[in-house]
Amino acid sequence: MTFNQLIKLLPKLVKYNLKIIFAGKFFWFLLAAFGFFAFFMFQNAWNRAEINEGLIYNILMFPCLLLIFYPAVFGIQNDEDSRILEILFGIPNYRYKVWGVRLLMIYIAVFAILIIFSYIAILLLYPINPLEMSLQLMFPVLFFGSMTFMFSTITRSGNGTAVLVIVIGIALMFFSNMNSIEHSFWNILLNPFRVPDNFHPMIWEGILIKNRIFLFSASLIWMMIGLLNLQKREKFV
User: Fold this and answer.
1) In the chain, count of helices (H) and strands (E)?
2) Which residue, of 60, 144, 154, 189, has the fewest CB within 10 Å?
3) Where are the domains of the chain?
4) What does the mean pLDDT of the chain come to?
5) What residues have CB less than 8 Å from 20, skipping those under 6 apart?
6) What is the 3 state secondary structure string of 131-190?
7) Angstrom distances, CA of residue 161 to CA of 46, 76, 183, 213
């Protein structure tokens, strides 16, 4: 296949994979994410909370995790149910490349939706930098999305993965609120726009950089484990 043929094929490939990724119930997850986003905005405005970038980040956190939930949890099961996984296993070294591209497309789509949500927050609540806000939110999205994908390749069940991820998510939220972890780089939900009063800005910046490196590195590890699991044909057939 020549480079020109590949360029012509790319839009069709992207369109096909997007249909697979966001088929089924994703629309309802998108609707739910927007519903929670609108509710949180209304609630904070009604309670006359102090509106700032830190609050917008917290408001967007749950909707962005909801956006990544469905495609990461049910992607493998949907492939298995539609027999696509059997076809992919018939092509050597291709199945994990397909899912590598799909994960990239999922994250790009979620990033685009977050930018739209950020612009809505600008119109209704507070002026922020939508690009910076969306980029910062992508770190926990990458972490939870890649971790969820890894578990989906282990359980091979959408419902099983969903239960497992929800339990782990609740546990991580609990640990993130502990005094010893809340303002450390181990906090997965660390809010970069909310600087603690007793922290020097330079110290806080160092913690934030370490936190983002930690989240990105862990995301790559989860993703690699998941892609390697896809090479074990006997687990899926």
Assistant:
1) 9, 0
2) 154
3) 3-235
4) 81
5) 78, 79, 84, 102
6) HHHHHHHHHHHHHHHHHHHHHHHHHCCHHHHHHHHHHHHHHHHHHHCCHHHHCCCCCCCC
7) 36, 10, 29, 26
